Amino acid sequence: MTLVRCHYSGQDARLPLELCRCGAMFGALFWSLFAQVLLRYTSAAWVQRGEACVFFFFMVCSCALAPAAPRRDHVHGDNDEEVEKTPTRQHRIKGHKPLAALADCLLLLSVLLIYAGASMACTFATPLALRAGVAPATAGFVQACMYAAGLVGELLVGHIEHAVSRKWILVALATLAGLHTVLIPYIASTPITLVFFFFFGMFPALVMTTTPLHFLQSIQLGDRGATVLILASSLGFLLGGPICGFAEDSRRGWAGGNVAYMTSLWGGTLALAVTLTCRVMFLT
């Protein structure tokens, strides 16, 4: 996404960013399935070395394609309207600066928690499936199902956000995530396990698609919103794995990791809902 931001700005960056997210999910799905195929013919060590070489090659190419400085071209049209509205908007919230700062802090907390939950899902999907009694080959397929759910989520939000408000998308996601926990007592069944982990990956994928747009519209941060978004999401990914591992060890079971995962995502969604409500009621 940083590379996209270097080449595009304003509204022009929306489509490339969506394509970037979809490509990331598709790539993760492809390499997960491809690794399972390679494991039938070679050892895991050689598969890991091969994936590391491919990853290094694409990282070098991405850095080479990045320009020396981000584009700052001024494009007439929708961006002009946004620039003209910014001073008026700042003047309108002049008397609510503490509330606006609180809203931005809640927004920062929501992004951190949501990305921490996504990190838990990506890190512990396969170990949790193995501890639930699923065969190793099926556990690898579970990881692929999670990435497939992310790809479906990216495409799904892109189609429905034009007809439905993002707020109601988040409400539906939270409800879906809560309902799928009824499958926990039946997780020993392989088909139920696949369905469970499909939704396990669907929720963070869809939430991560809708959240950045709210964060980039931050009132107090302004142009720094994109930078703080990257910092918050990176910190969330960094903390998610250790927190989930500690919860799993303390509870002595995979259910502890699931509790940490759901608490993180629900807490982030709640913080986001409070933020949006404050903006609608007091800052618009």
Automatic annotation (TrEMBL):
Keywords: Membrane, Transmembrane, Transmembrane helix. It is a multi-pass membrane protein. PROSITE patterns: MFS. Residues 96-284 form the Major facilitator superfamily (MFS) profile domain. The keyword Transmembrane helix applies. The chain crosses the membrane at residues 20-39, 45-66, 99-118, 138-157, 169-188, 194-216, 228-247, 259-282. One of its GO terms (molecular function) is transmembrane transporter activity. Residues 70-90 are annotated as: Disordered. It is found in: Membrane. Its main location: membrane. GO terms for cellular component: membrane. PANTHER family: EG:103B4.3 PROTEIN-RELATED (PTHR11360:SF284), MONOCARBOXYLATE TRANSPORTER (PTHR11360). This is Major facilitator superfamily (MFS) profile domain-containing protein.
